[in-house]
TrEMBL record:
<dbReference type="InterPro" id="IPR002881">
    <property type="entry name" value="DUF58"/>
</dbReference>
<feature type="domain" description="DUF58">
    <location>
        <begin position="49"/>
        <end position="249"/>
    </location>
</feature>
<dbReference type="InterPro" id="IPR036465">
    <property type="entry name" value="vWFA_dom_sf"/>
</dbReference>
<dbReference type="Pfam" id="PF01882">
    <property type="entry name" value="DUF58"/>
</dbReference>
<protein>
    <recommendedName>
        <fullName>DUF58 domain-containing protein</fullName>
    </recommendedName>
</protein>
Length: 289
């Protein structure tokens, strides 16, 4: 069942945690195919993919044939079966108030987190979520999922939201949901804290269609959600420069993720929620998609 947030789910109907739970279950339904082991990338027997070498990797795992072909260092990753845990990091800074078609970036992130955790609870995996000032403890099962939903539903925007200090854990997948309107150096340093040889990182970059292409009409006034600064803009005159600057910023984020060995996914507020879920579970092979 394809569930599209723009045409089927009206965020105004999510008035309480029961409605939040019901919609998360609806989204997760197509990915609930029975409990089975999570597939992790490591020193197993079956080849999965290459990723760039990063500081801290065992140099013995470098694929020298790839080096001979590309003159770059790559690690050959293979699959193993293991217990694993998942930590969702949700950006709830004021810029996440931006909305299109009734959907704010924060609501999108919250609903995606709820649906992903629903599937993880069915798998028996351990999971939790964090924001700037909130930290859920790791747990598993339906009761823990429902407890996570109760606090997640109440999560609101925070002024001056700082990066979450990640828990010091190995065998963890971090799922970072943000619009990444942070200075590049700050993003780079935070990626280093999250991604190392014993962890994995997925970065979901949430953008609106109109936001990406400055599709708001000719003359408008923008209000910076962080600083409250008001700026009058003629979109037709500034669109090319805006798209150029935004594309450069996106390219830098993608490059940082690639160099670290993280996974980068750009998702649209106007897109199909099920497709974003499919991307997540494709990476970790929970279902045969």
């Amino acid at each position: 069942m394809e569930v599209n947030n723009q045409h089927i789910i009206d965020p105004k109907t999510i008035q309480d945690v029961k409605a939040f739970e019901w919609i998360a279950k609806l989204l997760a339904k197509g990915f609930l195919h029975g409990k089975h082991d999570a597939v992790r990338l490591g020193a197993g027997m079956e080849f999965q993919q290459y990723r760039p070498y990063v500081s801290g990797d065992d140099i013995r795992s470098i694929d020298w044939k790839m080096f001979a072909k590309t003159d770059k260092y790559y690690i050959k990753q293979t699959s193993i079966q293991t217990e694993h845990q998942y930590l969702f990091i949700i950006d709830n800074s004021l810029s996440m108030k931006y909305s299109e078609n009734g959907w704010s970036k924060l609501w999108y992130a919250k609903l995606m987190t709820a649906a992903m955790m629903c599937v993880l609870s069915n798998q028996g995996d351990h999971f939790a979520w964090q924001s700037g000032k909130q930290l859920m403890t790791m747990g598993s099962g339906k009761r823990h999922w429902q407890h996570c939903l109760e606090t997640l539903f109440r999560l609101d925007f925070e002024e001056g939201n700082d990066f979450v200090q990640p828990m010091k854990q190995s065998s963890t997948t971090f799922i970072w949901m943000s619009d990444f309107y942070h200075p590049i150096l700050e993003v780079q340093e935070y990626i280093k804290k999250l991604k190392h040889p014993q962890t994995e990182l997925i970065m979901f970059h949430i953008l609106g269609h109109a936001e990406k292409f400055l599709d708001f009409g000719s003359n408008m006034t923008f209000v910076d959600l962080e600083t409250k600064q008001r700026i009058d803009v003629n979109a037709n005159a500034t669109r090319k420069e805006y798209e150029k600057n935004l594309s450069a910023h996106l390219a830098k984020i993608k490059n940082l993720s690639f160099k670290s060995g993280a996974i980068y996914e750009e998702v649209s507020l106007n897109g199909n929620i099920t497709e974003t879920l499919r991307r997540f579970f494709h990476h970790y092979q929970y279902t045969a998609l």
